[in-house]
Amino acid sequence: MNDAFPLDPVVATFARYGLRRTSMTDVAQALGVSRQSLYNRFGSKNALAGWAVQALIDRSLAEALRAIEQPARTLPDRLADALDAWVGRHRDALHASPHGVEIVAVMQRHPPEAVRIAERRLVAAMTEAIRLSGPGSAVPRAGSMAQALCWTARGLVHAVPDHATFRRQLDHITGALVAR
């Protein structure tokens, strides 16, 4: 595992320069390490980018799953917290990056299998939470509701002007859908 390197400076460097234009020297400078140490650890820029994507997916999923498992929160709040951890918290950074459009385009054309696997795990956890905590009318539709909420959150990230609006809209949508 490459835990010796913090994720956030790596992601910030790719966001600053774009996937194609970022060099190992750029990342090394952001981390305060030698370029050779990055090559020794990862072997290539593509491997480094792959590690960063996987680490970001893993961190977002772990935070989302923790949000679902908060028994003191209402079901709509837990679902909204989970979706915020999965996609919402990345909204402002993505839109602030001059290469955000490039990053989104690459991820939409070639979403890593890891994203699909992680999202299936999230949808399964949301489905179970709806089945266990939702109103009776939601139980038979729990899987469809969870998938629809996930798709909605992914689209909402691109449709709102900021994270606060994303969260307000997501709270409204989850509350309305789950309360039925």
Would you write up a description of this structure?
With 180 residues, this protein is mainly α. The chain has a single domain (7-179), classed as Tetracycline Repressor, domain 2, CATH 1.10.357.10. The protein has 10 helices and no strands. The chain has helices at 7-17, 24-31, 35-42, 45-68, 75-86, 91-96, 100-109, 113-133, 142-159, 163-179. α4 (45-68) runs antiparallel to α5 (75-86) and α8 (113-133) packs across α9. The longest helix has 24 residues, at 45-68. The protein is elongated, with a radius of gyration of 18 Å. The mean pLDDT is 87.
Give a topology summary.
Layout (H helix, E strand, L loop, with lengths): L6 H11 L6 H8 L3 H8 L2 H24 L6 H12 L4 H6 L3 H10 L3 H21 L8 H18 L3 H17 L1
Helix pairs in contact: 1-2, 1-4, 2-3, 4-5, 4-8, 5-10, 8-9, 9-10
